[in-house]
Design a protein that fits this description.
Blueprint (H helix, E strand, L loop, with lengths): L1 H33 L1 E6 L2 E2 L3 E3 L5 E2 L1 H13 L2 E6 L2 H9 L5 E2 L7 H4 L3 E9 L1 E6 H4 L14 E5 L3 H9 L4 E5 L2 H9 L5 E5 H10 L5 E3 L6 E7 L4 H17 L1 H10 L22
Parallel strand pairs: 1-5, 1-6, 9-10, 9-11
Antiparallel strand pairs: 2-3, 3-4, 7-13, 8-11, 8-12
Length: about 280
């Protein structure tokens, strides 16, 4: 009997120890052994993530990723993909963390861990001033004749479908395509995070675009695998220290209040990228 009890105790100790070891540092171990931090992003969501004139990633989240890599003394690899693939990439251990202006939602939180928020925004409409100025609330766009374009898989799509179920909601592959539809007047408005809408309106002043007040509360956070408690704790403390030292405030000031960074964007006719890249 004693042997049976002892064997059972040893079994649970070994199993529990194995699980704890697997969950306490597997991601951090991978990063340190490879000497590389792999960050997933979309590259289609200024001011958080976008490519510059030379095709290099830049933005609020990209700077955040660089600061993480520097703090860990490792190299940084940026992996761009649609937002719909970011979560599966985390689950498959293809990336270590996702930074892409990602809204924290209960549904997404069932798949990945979120740390944050490091920024709070809301969903707004972007369109011609003559159209957006008439939208005072959801009822003004909740009709079949009102076309709202969204990037597929974003919270913009979720909010548009929830707030205006009767509207003609058009889901496209990315923000570039969505914005082009507004410029080409194939949709009356685009729904997205307010900072993105403000950037595009500012950059395309000749188009006489306007941005509505936010309709929602949108906390943005870092999406991470749930398999490594140490990695989750490290990122949480990293963001806490950034906030305490004022560096997070500096990032927000540059990317969300100072338009000078827009000079680094490709020269285009109202789009995110050069025509040759479309």
């Amino acid at each position: 009997m004693k042997r049976a009890v002892l064997s059972m105790v040893l079994f649970f100790v070994l199993v529990f120890g194995f699980v704890c070891q697997a969950s306490a540092g597997n991601v951090i171990d991978r990063i340190l052994k490879k000497g590389v931090l792999t960050v997933g992003t979309t590259g289609h969501y200024p001011p958080f993530t976008v490519d510059d004139k030379n095709g290099n990633p830049m933005g609020f989240d990209i700077d955040l990723a660089r600061m993480m890599a520097e703090a860990m003394d490792v190299k940084l690899t940026i992996s761009e993909m649609p937002i719909t693939k970011l979560f599966s990439a985390i689950e498959k251990n293809e990336i270590d963390i996702a930074l892409a202006g990602i809204t924290i939602t209960p549904k997404r939180n069932l798949r990945v861990v979120f740390i944050g928020p490091y920024y709070v925004t809301g969903q707004s409409l972007l369109g011609e001033k003559s159209i957006v100025s008439k939208v005072k609330g959801p009822e003004d766009m909740n009709k079949p004749s009102f076309k709202i374009v969204v990037s597929r898989g974003t919270t913009g799509e979720q909010v548009a479908r929830a707030m205006a179920p009767k509207a003609d909601i058009i889901a496209v592959k990315d923000m570039e395509t969505a914005f082009k539809m507004v410029i080409d007047r194939k949709a009356q408005a685009l729904m997205a995070d307010e900072p993105f809408c403000v950037v595009m309106a500012f950059r395309n002043q000749d188009k006489k675009l306007a941005v509505s007040a936010p309709f929602t509360f949108e906390p943005l956070g870092a999406a991470m695998p749930s398999s490594d408690v140490l990695w989750i704790n490290w990122v949480d403390n990293f963001l806490m220290n950034l906030n305490a030292t004022g560096k997070l405030k500096e990032l927000k000031g540059y990317w969300l209040a100072d338009p000078s960074w827009m000079q680094r964007l490709p020269e285009t006719e109202g789009l995110l990228y050069k025509k040759s890249a479309m």
